[in-house]
Amino acid sequence: MTSTRAVGITANLPVTDPRVFVERDVEVPVLRPRDLLVEVSAVSVNPVDAKERVRTDPGEFRVLGFDAVGTVRAVGDEATLFAPGDRVYYAGSIRRPGSNQRLQAVDERIVAMAPTSLTDAQAAALPLTAITAWEALFDKLALTTGSTGTLLVVGATGGVGAVLLQIAEALLPGVTVIGTASDDERTRYVRSLGAEHVVDHRGDLAEQVLAIAPDGVDDVFTAHSDGQAETYARLLRPFGQIVGIDGGPGDFQPLRAKSISWHWEFMFSRPIFEPADMIAQHELLGRVAGLVDDGRIRSTTTTELAPISAATLREAHRLIETGRTVGKIVLSGWE
Questions:
Q1: Domains and CATH numbers, the chain
Q2: Which of these, 23, 68, 109, 244, has the minimum number of CB atoms within 10 Å of its CB?
Q3: What would the pLDDT profile of 189-239 be if each residue is shown by its tens digit?
């Protein structure tokens, strides 16, 4: 086989334009030494997909997609972790063609065996969000199984927040978790994922949090930090920590008086720069798969579309751009 089906973009178009995604045949990728060639069976759509779509220069055919489940069909000359026939899951790299294609090349050091207890569609929801949540909690905030204190999760109903709550519930028994939600349905969802307390981010967030933790919380995970520095400074204790996955609050000055630390989490840093510990993503995804198969983490899939096509990807991007999605949107199968 010399070509494979792909769904990509050729111009910077709004999701309302029916030409935003196009389907075409592309060459089967040539494997690098540590690559796997994966036959993709399911993908999910994340906010980063929409952001990358609008950054693409007109005329360039680019395949997006930063979550996948599939079967290994071939391995590179130096690949040792997997064999043809293995069922795997991964988030890929922002610097390489994405998972919205039938055959994709991906470095084995950011891939793990998929959870055996989940369908392809259920498993596809997890890689990017699980990596982000894991790195935020353990690499950036440096929490451990023996940690205590209080963690505020801003954006608890989003893809990352929903996995982070479950990881905290499973591995951080001494940490009290507060999640944010905007209505009764989302409050129930956040509680079901392990949050002990839920606050409404539409109200006075600091006042609500301090009613629960009068001395301030120890740590904050945030997916929505724009303009929130003063609020976070109010609700955090001195020497507290924040880990953010968005653009930041703009003005960090309000955090200075309490010596509050800010950490950035970008799960593509390892795939882009390939540091010596790049294999950490393989290892953590393996840990997550084990937690899933032990019944301690569940899939965050809430919307399933089929097949993987220009039409279904357009609908998934439309839903993502509303900013109101709960959980993950997953696409599976090929025509």
A1: 3-126+273-332 (3.90.180.10), 129-264 (3.40.50.720)
A2: 23
A3: 999 999 999 999 889 999 999 999 999 999 999 999 999 999 999 999 999
Residues pairing with 176 in the sheet: 150
Under 8 Å between Cβ of 137 and 114: no
- Which 3 state secondary structure label does DSSP give 255? helix
Distance CA 65, CA 4 (A): 16
pTM of the model: 0.96
Residue pair 263/241 in contact (Cβ under 8 Å)? The answer is: yes
What tens digit of pLDDT does each residue of 145-195 get?
Answer: 999 999 999 999 999 999 999 999 999 999 999 999 999 999 999 999 999
User: Backbone phi, then psi, for 191, in 5-degree steps?
Assistant: -65, -35
Handedness of CA 213, 216, 218, 220 (dihedral sign): positive
pLDDT confidence of residue 323: 83
Q: Which letter does DSSP use for residue 101 in this model?
A: B
